[in-house]
Amino acid sequence: MDLSLSTWWWIVAGLLVAAELATGTLYLLMVAIGCAAGAIAAHAQLAFFPQALVAAAVGGGLVLAWHRLRERSPGPVPPQANPDINLDIGERLQVDGWNADGTARVPYRGSAWNVRYIGDGPAVPGPHVIAEVRHNELAVRRA
User: Fold this and answer.
1) What would the pLDDT profile of 95-120 be if each residue is shown by its tens digit?
2) In this structure, are 48 and 86 located in the same domain?
3) C-alpha span between 3 and 89 (Å, rounded)
4) What DSSP letter does each residue of 61-94 carry, written as one string?
5) Backbone CA torsion sign across 52, 53, 54, 60
6) 138: confidence class by pLDDT, cuts 50, 70, 90
7) What is the model's pTM?
8) What is the share, in percent, of the chain residues with pLDDT greater than 70?
9) Domain range holding 133?
10) Are 34 and 10 in contact (CB under 8 A)?
């Protein structure tokens, strides 16, 4: 059985997609797209060297573009400050007085909670917004 070059490109692309599914890295998917571009170049009856150039240019370009996109995007929000995980983040509460160490005890959701001031400036009584949930303590900023 004699397989054409385009078939080999598609086989390699399929193996790379399978490896990507097993590892979860999108870089392998970008290289697989490059192999698919090489297969399309083979279908266009280009010689092997131009096929390899097309595959390298497309796959390498996508890898470089994805890498630069990930560098520019902000890092993940830590779980204690992520409003998708902690539904209390962004909620308002009233602090009537602060201790000298920047902590207080306030009623919130039917219970007394420890709060710690993490905002700018001095801690003053009044309305505050929950910025983080740190175990059994709420980190707050002025509203």
Assistant:
1) 999 999 999 999 999 999 999 999 88
2) no
3) 59
4) HHHHHHHHHHHHSPPPPPGGG-TTT-TTTT-EEE
5) positive
6) very high
7) 0.60
8) 99
9) 79-142
10) no
DSSP letter string over 2-46? ---HHHHHHHHHHHHHHHHHHH--HHHHHHHHHHHHHHHHHHTT-
Structure tokens at 72: 């520019």
- Whole-number Å distance between alpha carbons of 129 and 139: 9
1 pLDDT more than 70: no
Number of domains comprising the chain: 2
Is residue 96 located within the same domain as residue 118? yes
Based on the fold, state whether residues 42 and 22 are members of the same structural domain.
Answer: yes
Q: Is the pLDDT of residue 82 over 90?
A: no
* 27: alpha, beta or left? (left if phi > 0; alpha if psi -120 to 50): alpha
Regarding whether 96 and 134 lie in a shared domain, the answer is yes
Identify the CA nearest to 36 among candidates 54, 18, 60, 63.
Answer: 54
Residue 86's pLDDT is 85
Question: Please, what is the Cα angle at 57 between 54 and 62, to 5 degrees?
Answer: 125
**Count of residues for the chain?**
143
